[in-house]
Amino acid sequence: MNNPDHPGGKAERDRSVVVEDGLAKTNEPVSSAVAEPGAAARRHEPHEPPRQHLQEKLYKPREPVHNKRIDGPFRRFKWFVMLVTLGIYYVTPWLRWDRGPYAPDQAVLVDMANRRFYMFGIEIWPHEFYFVAGLLIMAGIGLFLVTSAVGRAWCGYACPQTVWTDLYQHVDRLIDGDRNARIRLDRAPWTWGKVFRRGFKWTIYALIGLITGGAWILYFADAPTLFRDFFAGEAAPIAYVTVAILTLTTVTLGGFMREQVCIYMCPWPRIQSAMLDEKSLIVTYKDWRGEPRGSLKKAKKQPEAFGDCIDCMQCVQVCPTGIDIREGPQIGCITCALCIDACDKVMAEIGRPRGLIDYATLEDCEREAKGETPRSPWRTLLRPRTVAYSLIWGSIGLALLFLLGVRSHTELTVSPDRNPPFMLMSDGSVRNSYTLKLRNMESRPRDMELSIEDLPGALMWSDTIRRADAASAQTVTVPADQTQTVRAYVMVPAGTPARDFTFRVTSQDEQRETDAVETRFSAPGDDQ
Amino acid sequence: MENKRIDEPTGTETVGHEWDGIEELDTPMPRWWLWTFYLTILFSVGYVIAYPAWPLVDKATAGVLGWSSRGELAKEIDAADLARESVREALARVPIERLPEDSALMAQAVAGGRAAFKVNCSQCHGSGAAGSQELGYPNLNDDDWLWGGDLKAIEYTLTHGIRQAGHDETRTSQMPPFAGAFDPAQLDALVSHVLSLSGKGQTSPAGAQLYADTCVACHGASGEGDRAVGAPRLNDAIWLRGSSREAIMRQILNPRMGMMPKWEGRLDPVTIKMLAAYVHSLGGGEDFVEVAEDPEVEVDEQP
């Protein structure tokens, strides 16, 4: 739009030379590399490059989307996914899982206060957070896998924004009627009837938001207890604040912003546009078949002059993001395939073959346009990229499962006292003190044997075991699901030099889990 | 500003500043921003009335709520004190020789003692309670005790101190200086005998005789010491002021005696109890044997 080579308007004056105080100054920018001394001090007159008027406004107000009701295979699949995803979200906190008397019985629980993450049979401690990180990485790569296999299927069916937007659009339809009724109501003046109707609808919006935000907090505490406390006004303030925030975001994002989240806020469409290529499955309009568009009447008169598209606008009216798929793939298209349902229905009514709008790859489209037989869309599922993603995804999963299977539920950390490093006893023997942490990750109390290796003649006692009972191995009971701190005193006979040795902990049950830590025994004359 | 003009593409007025051809648009602020701004002004009026706000000469305006950060701190300290109160009460009730029976209370006493030790005791005994041989501050981690290492003895030492001037109940004893009492050969023989008690040197009849004449009364025939008078053991590996011949000689001729202040009056009995439990827990604490002989220890209800 700006073209400095062709300054518009005849009123423009020559700005190449400026006369100031009777002195001509050049108005051309001078590079400091070639300018003579003082050139920088000679300012040229400020002016902006000539511009023409911008053609378009930078801001586009939202056009409300009133999507029409449609039924078809993809719509039914969307219903199914909605049911499953919402079901998982709302039901999961209420599932129970027996873990014995020492651990909570909620199947999925993020226990912030006790720093534990429970997921059915798996319990994650904070130091094992890499499992959660691994799950998140799997989720990310899973999205890549889904995108390269079936395009933006996540956006179209499973994304929470899509699911809740869909939910709210159904509420719109139930309260205000279908597309035309909603458009009429939108344009209608604010009568009491409209106020009442809107108030009723927004109350339902708020209720859905409340249930959504309310279910979220149930993942972080015992669901039945928190549910009771919440309505009794006895839950923690953070619970109410969280619910309030999530209610607000649900209503705002799902009830009012809707497709704008996908188009303007979400980074995922941008990432996906980089991942899509001519082999990706997209929802596309087969323009070689549809163009030029013409009504049924016109097509009847001149069958050869018009394509299959009768310009009935059904595909636009059912679109939940309000786009026209016939303009080609675009960022607003979440590939929910409702336009396929709509178009197939119309094609069936007018007796033309289905699939004017269809899931296809660009390659297939080109092939089909040339008259060749298209490959089945299923072929796109198996190609090097999807295989590679599946392999990466699967191997991370297997690695996590393997790690989960072989992880030990017993751990030991040792921290030797440095002040003083060693202690001379009255009989000349030398004593060192250590702070040991024995970790019992089973949800039952366990006896653990603590022993000393590679330190001949060593005796050990602790803050709870008397010196009279000192021995080279001691048994400590560690409470269920906890870390027990033991202050251990290790004593060797006089004259034993400083050396490295090993603390070993062994669980006294059928598992016989063990962990060993090497540390140092300090003695007089020890340089370390 | 004579340079003000309407910017063509946006239709907005410029502010009139210009630098090297760069100008600034005077874009009006968004409505929501302005309203937020007005709301903050309203809020500040309420805040100034309710809370301390205007700095005056020596203090700020108080605000009608009477809130102050100092008062808030005092409230929190009160709450913390209240939370500790039950532990302190329990500690005050339990006689110290019975403390180990309640391991939870003992653990709390040790934790409290650790904090009090850092504040009151680490100046001489060191933060690790390792003492100082050079300065004669005893190491509290080992199993060598001058005045006894059970809980009750430690508590007594803490309460009454050692050689605390002007205090009748303090632990006290005096080793006389022997400067001029021995000739060099005698002194040498005596030092050899003292070292031989812990197997470090060869004794001689003369040395043994000198020891028996002058030292046995307090330090015992085989150098076992006497806790009743705080006489150190001479037959063990721990030497408060060094085990070299010179160090021992110096200590015989001109003994240096340690002093520890009494903490009664400075610290409350419960803190002293906690300190005793902590020192006892450092690894060298001894069992209190008298309990078995006198099981009917009266529980002192008066803290």
Automatic annotation (TrEMBL), chain A:
Keyword annotations of the record: 4Fe-4S, Electron transport, Iron, Iron-sulfur, Membrane, Metal-binding, Transmembrane, Transmembrane helix, Transport
Segments of this protein annotated with the region Disordered: 1-59, 506-528
Compositional bias segments (type: Basic and acidic residues): 7-18, 42-59, 507-518
Domain of life: Bacteria
Membrane spanning stretches: 77-95, 129-150, 202-221, 237-256, 387-406
PANTHER family from the UniProt entry: FERREDOXIN-TYPE PROTEIN NAPH (PTHR30176:SF3)
Name of the protein: Protein RdxB
Residues in 4Fe-4S ferredoxin-type domain copies: 301-328
InterPro entries according to UniProt: 4Fe4S_Fe-S-bd, 4Fe4S_Fe_S_CS, Cyt_c_oxidase_cbb3_FixG, Electron_Trans/Redox, FixG_C, Helical_ferredxn, Ig-like_fold
Species this protein is from: Blastomonas marina
Automatic annotation (TrEMBL), chain B:
Keyword Transcription recorded: no
Membrane-spanning parts: 32-50
Cofactor: heme c
Keywords recorded for this protein, A-Z: Cell inner membrane, Cell membrane, Electron transport, Heme, Hydrogen ion transport, Ion transport, Iron, Membrane, Metal-binding, Oxidoreductase, Repeat, Respiratory chain, Transmembrane, Transmembrane helix, Transport
Localization annotation: Cell inner membrane
Record-linked InterPro entries: CcoP_N, CcoP_N_sf, Cyt_c-like_dom, Cyt_c-like_dom_sf, Cyt_C_IC, Cyt_c_oxidase_cbb3_su3, Cytochrome_c_Oxidase_Subunit
Coiled coil regions, renumbered to chain: none
Domain Cytochrome c: 108-198, 202-283
Alphabetized SUPFAM superfamilies for the sequence: Cytochrome c (SSF46626)
Pathway: Energy metabolism; oxidative phosphorylation
Pfam families named in the record: Cytochrome_CBB3 (PF13442), FixP_N (PF14715)
Cofactor detail note: Binds 2 heme C groups per subunit.
Description of how the protein assembles with itself and partners: Component of the cbb3-type cytochrome c oxidase.
UniProt record similarity statement: Belongs to the CcoP / FixP family.
Known function: C-type cytochrome. Part of the cbb3-type cytochrome c oxidase complex.
Identification of the protein by name: Cbb3-type cytochrome c oxidase subunit
Organism, scientific name: Blastomonas marina
Gene name of the record: fixP
